[in-house]
Amino acid sequence: MAAASATTGEVKLLGLWRSPYVTRVGIALNLKKVGYEFVQEEVQGQKSEILLKSNPVYKKIPVLIHQGKPVCESAIIVEYIDEIWTSEPPILSSHPFDRAVARFWVTYIDDKLLALVRTLAFGATEGTSKAEVADGGAEAFQLLEEAFAKCSHGKEYFGGDTIGYVDIALGCWLGWIKAVEEVSNIKFLDEKKVPLLVGWAERFLQNEAAKGTMLEADEYVQRVKNLSASAR
Q1: Rounded Cα distance, 68 and 224, in Å
Q2: pLDDT in tens, 63-113
Q3: Which of 43, 57, 170, 213 is deepest in the core (most CB within 10 A)?
Q4: In DSSP terms, which residues pair with 12 in a beta bridge?
Q5: CATH assignment, 11-84
Q6: Might you report a single GO cellular component term (predicted)?
Q7: What is the pLDDT of residues 142-167, one digit of tens each?
Q8: What residues does each domain of the chain span?
Q9: Nearest alpha carbon to residue 32 among 106, 103, 90, 94
Q10: Check: CATH 1.20.1050.10 for 96-231?
């Protein structure tokens, strides 16, 4: 799943492909055409010595190791990749305001939207109904639809002509979103409600940078079913 082109300096990615946060880093590396070694981690099993050494604080994936130095947390790693490999296309805009807007939406995606998707995978929490969770998710996707209209300036991606920071942050979750839709019978990417996002998702999944970084659709569905069953 690593990009074919190599660059100066050893690059390793510690992770598990079913993790959207690992997928996020893989997409960024592919976008920059950075060759890397993927080191498989089993999160539920014994954590490897290299993971514990590389991320002693959180002890979790993903971790990018570049020239022997570890970088942790997916959003931070993506920014690091953009700053180290300055070849086109840039992931973040050179304009401070546009960068700030992109960071806002990445934080929103991580803190708000996908928390709802995870809740549907594991089951609604006490005091919260499935309908309430679905309504919250629909509202979040509507806000992202509006954000896309503003950020894309009529082009194909949040980042404009090419995949950018927000595209990567949201796109890495598409496999999980589609699986949750199928298992819960709740449609988030509804062409009637969020047509811009639906078109964007199709383009994103066909982009070369995204190919090879995600599991097959049925694997995500089975994973969601397993999570739902374990939560009962």
Answers
A1: 35
A2: 999 999 999 999 999 999 999 999 879 999 999 999 999 999 999 999 887
A3: 170
A4: 37, 65
A5: 3.40.30.10
A6: cytoplasm
A7: 999 999 999 999 999 999 999 999 99
A8: 11-84, 96-231
A9: 90
A10: yes
174 to 41, 66, 167, 169: CA distances (angstroms): 22, 27, 11, 10
Average pLDDT score, the chain: 91
* The dihedral sign for the CA sequence 14, 213, 82, 38: positive
Evaluate if residue 221 carries a pLDDT over 90: yes
Place of tokens 């300096």: 9
DSSP 77-132: HHHHHHHH--PSSPSS-SSHHHHHHHHHHHHHIIIIIHHHHHHHHH-PPTT--HHH
- Residue written as tokens 């994936």? 61
Handedness of CA 215, 89, 66, 6 (dihedral sign): positive
Residue 23, CA distances (Å) to 18, 75, 190 in order: 8, 11, 24
Kindly state the tokens that stand for 93.
């805009």
- Give the number of other CB atoms < 10 A from CB of residue 8: 7
